[in-house]
Amino acid sequence: MTSRLNGLLAAGLVMAALPSLAQTYRITDLGAAAGDAVSKAYALNELGQAAGSSSSPTGGKATLFSKGQAIYIGSLAAGDVSFATGINASAEVVGYEPEYSTSPPVFHAFVYSNSALHDIHSASIFPTGTSATAINGSGVVVGEGELDADRFHAFAYSNGQMVDIGPPGSYQASAVGINDAGQIVGNAYFTQGGGGAFVYSNGKFTYLAAPSSSVTVSAFAISSTGEVAGTFYFNSGTPAHAAMYHNGAWTDLGGVAGASATHGTGINAGGQVVATAYYPVKSYHPFVPGKHVAYIVQNGALVNLNTLLPPNSGFTVTDSIAINDAGQVLCDALNTHGTERAVLLTPN
Hints:
Layout: H1 2-17, E1 25-29, E2 38-44, E3 50-55, E4 61-66, E5 69-72, E6 83-87, E7 93-99, E8 106-113, E9 116-119, E10 130-135, E11 141-146, E12 152-158, E13 161-166, E14 172-178, E15 184-189, E16 195-201, E17 204-207, E18 215-222, E19 228-234, E20 241-246, E21 249-254, E22 261-267, E23 273-278, E24 283-284, E25 287-288, E26 292-298, E27 301-304, E28 315-323, E29 329-335, E30 340-347
Antiparallel strand pairs: 1-30, 2-3, 3-4, 4-5, 6-7, 7-8, 8-9, 10-11, 11-12, 12-13, 14-15, 15-16, 16-17, 18-19, 19-20, 20-21, 22-23, 23-26, 24-25, 26-27, 28-29, 29-30
């Protein structure tokens, strides 16, 4: 028995010494709405359906990507551009549309449900516009409402009513996500200082304090279990790092060498985080933007998602947008013609 136990322990030590194999993915082009060539991703649900936009390449069209189809969901006014930015498990989609009949244009938040587009903008609360960013399984919509040309607040919309949730006294604030537990994540800034990333739940704001005075944080996404993905900004000028908030504390997930910033953009219930690295502008005259590269955190390290795809996949993945609890990753990518497409990465 002792010999067998020692053998098992030795085998365990050998296995522990071996590097963990990286998860690999197959890639699916989500397409574009009829007549369009370009598509861009904004949100993912647990069934692998996505929300985003299609264009040709100008003039965005709010688009639902579902069951192999890219479906244009329409606009509130003929000729307006529209953008779909959130989706729930029932394939209800939210977004915003600039209304060009006014000058300057006023953004209108909308909900797409039961094959119809509904304007949920509340001019009495937010006279200069609203933009929806996310929707949960109960149909609660969150986003940003414009109070005037400079000030904006987070909002929540449900049962036909929009509410300015503030935070009270904030100068600028927005809600970027909501989970099925009703936890809302966002960012707020006050003229007197303070604020930062927050979670709003049951009428209470909890601020996710930065780990030190040398760092400020922004939140970008919340998981079904209340974990948050975001970004560390360093007062020293060090390029921004991806970060996650878990068990009451932030963890620095690191940055990418040569990148000017790395943002944590999505997180799932398993604590998997996806991120995007942004590289410096190559030229200003003429303007040549820096590249973007999509990453995922595996075994505590940022891994380029392009290295986890089949050889000659036909795509270069540029931006990680979201990750669901099944481990599917929604991304933007460039095809072999250099055209931007929304794509879905599914674990093998």
